[in-house]
Amino acid sequence: MTGKNAQNCNNNYLKYVRALDPPTKHFKNCLAAFGVGGLICTIGQFLRYMLEYAGLSGDELAGTVSVILIFFGCLLTGFGVYDRIGRHAGAGSIVPITGFANSVTSPAIEFRTEGYIYGTAAKMFNVAGAIIVYGVFSGVIVGIIYYFL
After folding, report:
1. What's the structural domain count of the chain?
2. Is residue 18 a part of any domain in this protein?
3. 44 touches 96 (CB < 8 A)
4. Burial profile 32-46: b = 16 or more Cβ within 10 angstroms, e = fewer
5. Per-residue model confidence as pLDDT tens digits over 31-63
6. Structure pTM?
7. Considering the domain boundaries, does residue 5 fall inside one?
8. Range of the domain at 31
């Protein structure tokens, strides 16, 4: 193909793809992400108030709320509910701590047939491993900066 024919072929292909591809609904997607992410955070805040009323405080309170949210994120992932929430909410479902729980639990469930070591344990941190590494690295950098300031 010559340069002009290739360009014409590319333009025709792009027109074809645009005709079949549904238009993106940016406002609706942002609203759904904001609503679901906000709802998850509201549930976390509600848990915090209830546990604070029950007598927890400080690190115990923060840790307990985090563990409960992680548990429910894993539970909903196991039942297949979190994936449906993610399809509807997009980024709103991955921002809170429940999204991290989902990113660890999903590969563990998907690869469980390969065994505990090579399936569940090895694949569990494919997605979440990078988050952990960069999170720890960022924490170290911030700690060094804080130490010298």
Report:
1. 1
2. no
3. yes
4. bbeebbeebbebbee
5. 999 999 999 999 999 999 999 999 998 889 999
6. 0.69
7. no
8. 25-148
